Amino acid sequence: MPDTVHMEDLLHTTCENMIIKAENDYQYLKKHYDKVFVGGLSTGGCLSLYLAAKHPEIAGIILVLSPLRLCEGTFMTAEYPEDQLYFHRPMDGKVGLFKQYHIHYEDIAVNIFKELEKLMAIIREAGFMTQVKCPAIIIQAKNDAVADPDSAQKIYDSIFSEIKELYRPETGGHSIVPEEERHEAFRRAAMFLEALK
User: Cβ(60)–Cβ(116) under 8 Å?
Assistant: First the structure.
């Protein structure tokens, strides 16, 4: 996959492509830095969890809204006609951080939802998460309507990390990054990293 991803690229992106890209980026960082932390939001969190299971030398992970399953009834779990390439999310009413965050997701290749399902299935395989032993902080709002809200607790209970933290704000949903709750989430992530020095 190229370093710059365009909307059309996701039409042909597979679960395997995502894993390879994450692996390549990690190997690049590993060559240039003695200590590497990995983190991600949603799908990026799943990829971070994958890397931590495969690379025990990773110094720590930050998982934000990382799904083990998706909530039913959302655009990500809907059935689409075979000839539909994109799901359109209108920009109406989006302002400030919401508009800035949302603009990258105005048109989403529907095939990517099935590829995310494949990635989640890998992570849910028996014994997979027990391979994660690095320090970890897991952040997920209790009212997340996209990623199954139980995902955070299940990840926390499944990984074998001696140092692990779980933060479950009451609100924030799957858009916690542009929400007011982001301040506390970022503060906790920063404190978690600071404590590992």
Answer: no
**Closest listed residue to residue 18, CA positions, set 122, 115, 121, 131:** 115
* Cα–Cα distance, 103 to 91 (Å, whole number): 7
- Tokens representing 3 are 């370093």
Crossing angle of helices 15-32 and 43-54, rounded to 10°: 60
pLDDT given at position 180? 74
CA nearest neighbour of 114 among 147, 146, 79: 79
CA-CA distance, 12 to 85, in Å (whole number)?
Answer: 11
196 closest CA partner among 38, 59, 51: 59
pLDDT band at 179 (very low <50, low <70, confident <90, very high): confident
- CA-CA distance, 26 to 127, in Å (whole number)? 23
The pLDDT of residue 149 is 92
Which amino acid would we find at residue 197?
K
Question: What is the tens place of the pLDDT at every residue in 60-100?
Answer: 999 999 999 999 999 889 999 999 998 887 767 666 655 56
Tell me if 118 sits within 8 A of 39, measured CB to CB. Answer: no
Which residues, listed in sequence order, are joined to residue 137 by a DSSP beta bridge?
62, 165
